[in-house]
TrEMBL record:
InterPro entries: Cyt_P450, Cyt_P450_B, Cyt_P450_CS, Cyt_P450_sf. Keywords: Heme, Iron, Metal-binding, Monooxygenase, Oxidoreductase. Belongs to the cytochrome P450 family. PANTHER family: CYTOCHROME P450 YJIB-RELATED (PTHR46696:SF1), P450, PUTATIVE (EUROFUNG)-RELATED (PTHR46696). This is Cytochrome P450.
């Protein structure tokens, strides 16, 4: 089965309006399904847990579209997926180039280093939750806007030394680039604007070096080495700052929504029957913050069985959030949020050589945000019970646009 032999294929909804239903339909159809992505680009969508594990750990699959994807030659200017697929960082590098570049930042995200950040994260969470606690009875707040977003953007920007005057600009720039519903001209403008902001950050850090990761990246990795190119610096900042807050914002917001929708689980937490870590892992399984992640490319023909062969040069997109709801892994009610389930296996942070460096930090931030919020505001309630908040307009990331709550119900 090749892309040329299939005249029609499903089109992934770029607005992400029904990502889980869409993924379930694809999963049922086969180990990989040829779909159309924005561009338009044909790619094999992979949504089964076992197949995702197989392909993300297979050296015959590359993330480096510049080197290995023949279809890149046909992409017009303003290709909406270019900011991710062509990002010049270890996110897309292959083999030894990937390992070398990843080593530049990996030590800063080790479990030991992340744990040292706990006091800083807790201080920020305390400040934000106290602001929520100061609201009068009946007042409405937004968990995403007032807690999850400012917490995560503060932590990652402190780590990379982003000055206050650039933080909002960089954050909104990344949000805009991840909106997969944008047309070509809008997508190109969003990408240009983001890289201008990141360029401002590099200029600022060259003039004001400090003990932060951006300043470290401006230096050679070892004495005598060449420093990173400007393109790789910009790509690495996009990757680390973007992934360092966007996915965790969705994790925290989705966890609060799930707990307030199912308050019986809060009771179990208070009774000691389940732990906060159970809630976090179940949220990662149930509402993985990253849905479809293009682009990968087959370096050889790959036979997945069931009559599906991904041919050399074919593009691949991985549905990481879909893996958590795979009934082959979770046969008991995979579409239900249940932190008491014994297995919460998921691939929310990826798999294989490109496993997310920020996984430990994301879990730490979620733990601190949730424990601080519910300890300070035990009566916290949804402002609109039964209402499903609008989703982010993206098939790339997964989460609610906002979550209105009442810190002190009247």
């Amino acid at each position: 089965m090749t892309s040329l032999s299939v005249p029609k294929c499903p089109v992934l909804d770029p607005t992400g309006a029904s990502v889980h239903a869409e993924a379930a339909a694809l999963r049922a159809e086969g180990p990989a399904v040829l779909v159309e992505l924005p561009g338009p680009v044909r790619a094999w969508a992979v949504t089964r847990h076992s197949v995702i594990q197989k392909l993300t750990n297979d050296p015959r699959v590359s993330r480096d579209s510049r080197r290995h994807w023949p279809g890149l030659a046909d992409m017009p200017e303003g290709w909406p997926l270019a900011p991710l697929a062509l990002q010049n960082s270890f996110f897309n590098f292959y083999g030894e180039e990937h390992r070398r570049s990843r080593r530049r930042v990996a030590p800063s995200f080790s479990p030991k280093q992340v744990e040292r950040m706990r006091p800083q994260v807790k201080a920020t969470a305390d400040r934000l939750v106290k602001e929520l606690a100061a609201l009068p009875p009946g007042a409405v707040a937004d968990v995403r806007r007032d807690l999850a977003l400012p917490l995560t953007i503060t932590v990652i920007c402190d780590l990379f030394g982003v000055p206050e005057h650039l933080r909002r600009k960089v954050g909104t720039g990344i949000d805009r680039v991840l909106d997969s519903s944008l047309g070509p001209e809008e997508a190109m403008a969003a990408s240009d604007t983001l890289y201008e902001r990141l360029g401002e950050l590099l200029r600022y850090k060259r003039e004001n070096p400090a003990a932060d990761l951006t300043s470290d990246l401006l230096l050679p990795a070892e004495p005598g080495d060449e420093p990173m190119s400007e393109a790789e610096l910009l790509g690495t900042l996009f990757l680390m700052i973007g992934a360092g807050y966007e996915t965790t914002v969705n994790l925290i917001t989705s966890a609060v929504q799930a707990l307030l929708t199912h308050p019986e689980h809060l009771t179990r937490i208070n009774e000691g029957a389940i732990a906060w870590q159970d809630v976090i892992e179940e949220t990662l399984r149930f509402e993985g913050p990253v849905m479809h992640m293009p682009m990968r490319c087959a370096l050889e023909d790959i036979d997945l069985g069931e009559g599906v062969v991904i041919r050399k040069g074919d593009a691949i997109t991985i549905g990481f959030a879909a893996a958590g709801r795979d009934p082959q892994v979770h046969p008991r009610c995979p579409e239900s949020f249940d932190p008491t389930r014994a297995s919460k296996e998921h691939l929310a942070f990826g798999h294989g050589p490109h496993f997310c460096l920020g996984a430990h930090l994301a879990r730490l931030e979620a733990e601190i945000a949730l424990t601080t919020l519910f300890a300070e505001l035990p009566d916290l309630a949804l402002a609109r019970p039964g209402h499903q908040p609008a989703r982010l307009t993206s098939f790339l990331i997964n989460g609610p646009v906002g979550l209105e709550v009442i810190p002190h119900p009247a």
